[in-house]
Design goal:
argininosuccinate lyase activity; lyase; Fumarate_lyase_CS; cytoplasm
Amino acid sequence: SSNQMWGGRFAAGPAAIMEEINASIGFDKKLYAQDIEGSIAHATMLAANGIISETDRDQIITGLKQIRQEIESGAFEFSRKLEDIHMNVESRLATLIGAAAGRLHTARSRNDQVALDFRLWVKAELKKTEAMLTALIGAFLDKAEKHADTVMPGFTHLQTAQPVTFGHHCMAYVEMFGRDRSRVRDAIERLDESPIGAAALAGTPYPIDRHMTAAALGFREPTRNSIDTVSDRDFALEFLSIAAICAVHLSRFAEEIVIWTTPQFGFVRLSDAFSTGSSIMPQKKNPDAAELVRAKTGRINGSLIALLTVMKGLPLAYSKDMQEDKEQVFDAAENLELAIAAMTGMVADMTVNVDNMKKAAGSGYSTATDLADWLVRELGLPFREAHHVTGRVVALAEKNACDLSALPLDQLQAIHPGITDKVYDVVTVEASVASRKSYGGTAPDRVREQIAAWRNRL
Ligand code: ARG
């Protein structure tokens, strides 16, 4: 019976491979609490509608509660022969209470059962994600508040563009994680329908009450189409999409941390709690947590693509392919939680090197646009001409190897005679950020308004 190629592992031949490829208990035991909760609600509904007796219901519920205890105390023996969590629980129930256990599966299939268990799990995970995002947003708000006046270079193409404040930069992430949180809330709304009672795919001839089970399990209402109900994994795909987008946001800040903690930038310092040393280079302090957050994005995005690809060719209704949904979601959820928690810790603990940021903010002629705007405002130059004049001023500063503010007035006037010494007031980084008062701009007062508005929204 044992095959030459893989006989060592599969002593019992093909049947053992069937068991290994088919079983999901290794990962779907994570759904035990949802499975038991769902079965209790189902049995209660069956009895309320005269489909099983109250005695059977009571025995079933007592047995299920005992099983829950056995699982939680570690006494339960999961069996791969029994395939999945649903059959493991039902089989144990039969051992515990005998014949009545066989009535639990009336008007139900594993197809609606797994859809129920998994929905309940994803719903709880979404709520957890929502709370974790709120904490992360809170950490960014604290940093933004502390650094509403801290000037840093704003970048485009990672080239110094215009001065901004670190507070404003932090608030950009508040917006991103705020959108993630609102996507989580939307997903909970859409997911909030109970699948139980769809049965295998067609519904059931028993006089069940799906509104009753929906209410007992905390769903807004039952799903409306039994075929869709057992075929649908949109809620899992939505979870993964949200996780992927959120992970991309986390990864972008992680990347900035990696850049900013280099000695060359020196904008921020991570706490010892979120850095590691090198086994050979004593001077090193590495941003490993940020790098791992950046890397988690790869596997979370991978999970989304994996499940999209599993689902794309499936005819209605249930196919066993769909069993592959859970590991992707579990893995993405675990790693997203880790990434959000690590980022929350890093943000809360990091210290900002205000001097380095300010020095960098002024380098690279970052206030050249302010000079051009001054020429437009004070001298009435068309913006295009002001741009040209400013370009010559920058070229001069480059030649002199100095900042714009260090150019002598007579040299500026040689480029444009209208320039006065008032120009020195607008080419500082502080004046630059203070002037950007447009709604959503980097002016510290504007940023403080946004911080206050977000505090209310939390
Ligand atoms: N373990 C299965 C899953 O995760 C449960 C549903 C099985 N249904 C079936 N008809 N084989 O999808």
